């Protein structure tokens, strides 16, 4: 009877150890606990640097890090802002590569309905009915 109780105890303990080992390795994939911690620290440093940026605010940018590769996603208002976010991320120690998946926010329609290349609205073009001829000339 005593041997049977010891066998159950040993078997139960072994199963618990085996199951706990499986769950921790599958939750992080191929990465070690140290790599997971490094990736979390890299993500936090980039998020802090983006929030502290003096020119742009990056409220709509999300940062994820896996094995030293940083993925940026979300929305910004200009190409310069997108590029600056990538530069900030690349400057953080431990970053191997930056994948910049940030998207430019759609521009609001302008009076002419066309934004220029900088994202700024073009002034409305004069129509022939509102154009006045130069002084000294007459209309045909």
Task: Write a structural description.
It is a single chain. The chain is an alpha+beta fold. It has a domain at 31-107: Histidine-containing Protein, Chain: A. Helices cover 41% and strands 16% of the residues. The protein is built from 3 helices and 3 strands, in the order ααββαβ. It has helices spanning 2-27, 33-51, 79-90, and strands at residues 61-66, 69-76, 97-104. Strands 1-2-3 form a 3-stranded mixed beta sheet. α3 links the parallel β2 (69-76) and β3. The longest helix is centred in the first third of the chain and has 26 residues, at 2-27. It starts with a helix and ends in a 36-residue tail after the last strand.
Strand order of the largest sheet: 1-2-3
What's the β-strand tally? 3
- Note the total helix count: 3
| Biggest pleated sheet | 3 strands, mixed
Backbone CA Rg: 30 Å
Structure classification: alpha+beta
Based on the structure given, which CATH architecture of the domain at 31-107 is correct? Answer: 2-Layer Sandwich
Instruction: Provide the succession of SSEs.
Output: HHEEHE
Large-scale geometry: elongated
Query: Helical content, roughly?
Result: 40-55%
Strand content: 15-25%
Distance between the termini: 118 Å
The CATH topology of the domain at 31-107 is: Histidine-containing Protein, Chain: A
The whole-number mean of residue pLDDT values reads 77
The CATH C-level class name of the domain at 31-107: Alpha Beta
| Uncertain spans | 17-26, 125-131
Overview in brief:
With 140 residues, the protein is α+β, with helices and mostly antiparallel strands. Helix content is 41%, strand content 16%.
């Amino acid at each position: 009877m005593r041997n049977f109780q010891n066998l159950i105890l040993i078997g139960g303990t072994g199963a618990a150890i085996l199951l706990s080992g499986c769950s921790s390795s599958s939750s992080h994939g191929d990465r070690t606990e140290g790599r997971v911690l490094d990736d979390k620290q890299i993500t936090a440093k980039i998020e802090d640097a983006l929030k502290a940026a003096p020119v742009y605010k990056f409220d709509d940018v999300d940062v994820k890090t896996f094995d030293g590769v940083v993925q940026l996603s979300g929305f910004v208002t200009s190409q310069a802002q997108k590029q600056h976010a990538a530069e900030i991320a690349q400057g953080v120690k431990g970053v191997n590569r930056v994948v910049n998946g940030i998207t430019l926010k759609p521009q609001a329609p302008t009076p002419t309905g066309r934004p220029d290349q900088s994202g700024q609205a073009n002034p409305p073009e004069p129509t022939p009915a509102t154009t006045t001829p130069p002084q000294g000339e007459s209309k045909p």
